[in-house]
Amino acid sequence: MLYSLRGTLILKTADTAVIECNGVGFACRTTLSTLSSLPKKGAEAMVYTYMKVGQDNSIELFGFATEQELSCFKMLTTVTGVGPKAGLSILSDTTPERFALHVASSDFKAFTKTKGIGAKLAQRIVLELKDKITKEQLSDASLAGFTPALADTPGNSLSEAVAALVVLGYSQSEAVSAVSALDASMAVEEMIKRALKSMIKS
């Protein structure tokens, strides 16, 4: 099983990156965010990969700039009705941090903004991944990435701050207690920072 690829980027298309390793070009289907993070043609590139073998023995290779994006893709494709194409589309429209927040806070409407994702499928994504994504994200050292990603998230700042703290492992009551003591006009990012400081001190 291929875990990652490192080599020379020889081609980028609208949804694929081709990386040459030891004379072999590996075509990886990927997201817009990964494509935008890759270097110019001819430079060294590295992606984390997932290989899917179809029932007809066809092989597809998917590549991602970060392990977090790979993890989200693998989780998404376990959801009934979400295939690789839909998974890539969703992750092209959001970051792994925002994806985790939408699932943890049951914000299924955020997924309906992706073409081809209806309300029923979006609700299924939240339902099937809510517990799973919390556990997996909590074990990841990149959890600090939730804070900056939330800075311009639309919606109610208080509820978003609470949802983020729950994703980070705090109970709903702990999160609500910490956030309710803050000024509701604060930016979400500042709310999370202050709430975390108050809970760590206590």
Tag the structure with descriptive keywords.
5-stranded antiparallel β-sheet; single chain; alpha+beta; 202 residues
Question: What report would you give on this structure?
Answer:
The chain has helices at residues 32-37, 67-76, 84-93, 96-104, 119-138, 146-149, 157-167, 172-180, 188-201; strands spanning 4-12, 16-21, 24-29, 44-53, 59-64. A hairpin with a 5-residue loop joins β4 and β5. It starts with a strand and ends with a helix. Residues 138-155 have low confidence and may be disordered. The chain is elongated. The protein contains nine helices and five strands; from the N terminus they run βββαββαααααααα. 46% of the residues lie in helices and 18% in strands. A five-stranded antiparallel β-sheet has the order 3-2-1-4-5, covered by helices on one side. It has 202 residues and is α+β, with helices and mostly antiparallel strands.
